[in-house]
Amino acid sequence: MTEDLSRIRNFAIVAHIDHGKSTLADRLIQMCGGLPEREMKEQVLDTMEIERERGITIKAQTVRLAYKAKDGQTYQLNLMDTPGHVDFTYEVSRSLAACEGSILLVDATQGVEAQTLANAYLAVEAGHEIVPVLNKIDLPAAEPGRAREQIAEVVGLDVSGAIEISAKTGQGVDRVLEALVKRLPPPTGDVHAPLKALLVDSWYDSYLGVMILVRVKDGIVKRGMKIRMMATGATHQVEQVGYFTPKPQQTDALGSGEIGFITAAIKTVADTDVGDTITEDRRAAAVPLPGFKPSVPVVWCGLFPVDAGAFEDLRDSLAKLHLNDASFHYEPESSAALGLGFRCGFLGLLHLEIIQQRLEREFDLDLVTTAPSVVYRVRTTDGGVKELHNPVDMPDPVKIASIEEPWINATIIVPDEFLGAVLALCTERRGRQIELTYVGGRAMARYRLPLNEVVFDFYDRLKSVSRGYASFDYELAGYEESDLVNVSILVNSEPVDALAFIVHRSHAESRGRVICEKLKDLIPRQLFKIAIQAAIGGRIIARTTVGALRKDVTAKCYGGDVTRKRKLLEKQKKGKKRMRQFGNVEIPQSAFLVALKTGE
Fold first, then answer.
1. 28 with 161, same domain?
2. Looking at the domain assignment, is residue 554 inside a domain?
3. Do the Cβ atoms of 262 and 221 come closer than 8 Å?
4. Backbone φ, ψ for residue 128 (5° rounding)
5. Contacts 24+ apart (CB under 8 A), 286-294
6. Residues 28 and 136 in one domain
7. What is the per-residue pLDDT for 599?
8. Is residue 570, in this structure, part of any structural domain at all?
9. Among 224-233, 256-265, 267-276, which stretch is predicted with the lowest mean pLDDT?
C-alpha cells in the first residue's frame, strides 16, 4: 500500500481497433519489469482464447507497474488496457471511471478513425487528462504530421505535446512513461476516511469463488475486514487482497487511489453488481459513489440448448458469464419449436457472437440461436405502450395504433474514392444524411439509420464496399414511428415461432421469400406435400412447396386387371389427403441453424 498518493498514476489506453493498445501495454510491462523476459509474449494481457484467436481485446485488463522516473522517484502506475470495438464501449467507459488520465493512441498510418473519436469523447466526459500518442511511426506509410492535424481538427485536442512512438520496436516508449508521471494528475482520496471502493469488474474463479476488481477511492481495504455491498446490502469477510503485475500478487491492504482485486468467498453471483460501492460494515460510508449508468442492450435473440436437458447448465453458465460481462442481459423464455431457453440482450452482433462462443467453449454447451432483433415499441389503441423483445409477443394487429423502432446516429469515416458506394449503402438501408464533412482527404459522413437495418450485416457490407477502409461508430438516437410488419413463417399451415421476424414493409416480401426458399431445401420430404409460407397477419406474401415422396403401392401387383392398380392408387391418394390434414412436420435442428443464419 502506498501512503503517498502523489506517486500513483491511474490511466487507460484508448484507441480504435488495431491501433496498437495491447502492444503498447506489452512494451510498458516489459520496460517496467512487470514480467521476466522469458515470460513475455505478444498481447500478454489478452488472456482469453477467443481474444488471442481473433486478435482483438474483449475484456479490459489491469496491471500495476513500478516505474523509476528520471527525477529518481519510484511511481506506481496502474494501467488499464481497453477494447476498441464499438460493441465493447461499455467495458471502456467502466475502465475510464477507475482512472484519472488516458493515453489516446492513434495509428500514424491510418489517422483518426470513428472509434478514436468515440473513445476520446468518453475520456473527455470522464474528466480525464489526455496524452495523445502517435503509434507505428516505424512503418514506411506513417504520416505523423497528417495524423496530428486530424487529432487537432476532428478530436479538438492540443497536439503540441503529442509523442511519436513505435510500440512494436519500443522506440519513444520511455517518453510516454515520463509523460504519464509529469502530465497526469495523481488520484485524490483520504486514507483515514471510511472505506469507499468502486466495484469495476468481477469474474468467477472455480477455486476462490467470485473475484472482484476494485478502485479504492477513500479508506483502506485489508485482509480480514468485513465489507458490505451498498446496493445489495450483502456482507462478506475479505480473504485475499492483491493486484496484478500481470500475475496476481497478494498484499495486506489496498489504500486510496489504488486498483486491485479482493476475494471474500462470495458464492452468490447476484451479490456483486458492477458499479456498486463497497464499504466497511462497521464504519460505513454515508453515500455511495456515482457508479456507472446501466448499459442498454441493442440486439436481442433467443439462446436455446440443443439438448433440452442442458437447460439448468445454460442457466448457471449465463449467471457466471453475466458476472464477467455486466453489459449482457438475459431472461427465461419458452418456444413451441425449441423448448426452454433464454432471451438475451447484447450491445451488438460481435458481442452476441463472442458470448455464444464463450458459452460453447468455456461451458461446453451446444446452442441454437434465433434471429437477432431489436427492441420495438408498440403503442396500442387503448393508450398503452409495450416494449417488444420477441416478434412472437406482437399484439393483435387490430389493437396496434403504431409501432416505433430505434434509430441511431452513425459516424462513418471513409476515403474519398469509396464515398459513393458508402452513401448508396446507407440510402438502401433507409438512412437519412445529417452532414458530410472532409477531414484531411477523407470524408466524414453522419447518418441517421434504423437500427434493425444495421444489426444484420451492415458492418460486413460497409467493409466490403470500402475494401476495409471505412470505420464506423454509432450511438442510439431514440425511437421513431415506422411502417413495420410482423412476418410469420408457416410450415404445413402451422406457424413456427422461432422463425418469426419484424421488418419494414418494403423489405418484407424479399426477406420472406429468402427464408421460404432456404427452408424448402432444409425440411426433409414427407409422403405428402408441405407448403412453406411467409405471412403478414392472414395475407400470404411468399410460398414454396416441398414435393411429396411417393411410395410404390403397386409393387405387389403382378399382372391381372389394371383396375387393381388404380384401386390401390386411389386408396393412397385418400391416405395422403388425410395425412396432409393431420401430418405433423418435424423440422430438424440443423434447418433452424441454417435458416437463422443472418447473412441474408
1. yes
2. yes
3. yes
4. -85, 150
5. 286/194, 288/196, 288/230, 288/231, 289/196, 289/198, 289/217, 291/198, 292/90, 292/93, 292/94, 292/97
6. yes
7. 44
8. yes
9. 267-276
The burial class, CB within 10 Å (0-12 / 13-18 / 19+), for 408 is: buried
pLDDT confidence of residue 588? 62
Number of domains observed in the structure of the chain: 5
Please give the Cα distance from 308 to 304 (Å, whole number): 8
Question: pLDDT by residue (tens digit) across 117-130?
Answer: 778 888 888 888 88
Which cell numbers hold the place of 480? 421513431
- In angstroms, the CA 82 to CA 198 distance is 18
> Which cell goes with 537?
397477419
Looking at 133, 156, 183, the residue that finishes a domain is 183
29 and 166 in a common domain:
yes
Same domain flag for 492 and 476: no
- By CB neighbour count within 10 A (0-12 exposed, 13-18 middle, 19+ buried), where does 574 fall? exposed
pLDDT digits (tens, 9 = 90+) for 193-216: 888 888 877 777 777 778 888 888
74 and 166 both lie in a single domain? yes
32-41, 109-118, 344-353: the lowest-pLDDT one:
32-41
CA distance 145 to 14: 20
pLDDT over 60 (residue 419): yes
Judge whether 213 lies within some domain.
Answer: yes
Letter string b/e over residues 70-96, b meaning 16 or more CB atoms within 10 A of that residue's CB: eeeeebbbbbbbbbbbbbbbbbbbbbb
Here the cell at position 237 is 469477510
Provide the CATH number for the domain around residue 204.
Answer: 2.40.30.10
Does 117 lie in the same domain as 156? yes
Q: Which structural domain range is residue 475 located in?
A: 392-482
Q: Give the end-to-end CA distance of the chain in Å, rounded to a whole number.
A: 56
498 shares a domain with 478? no
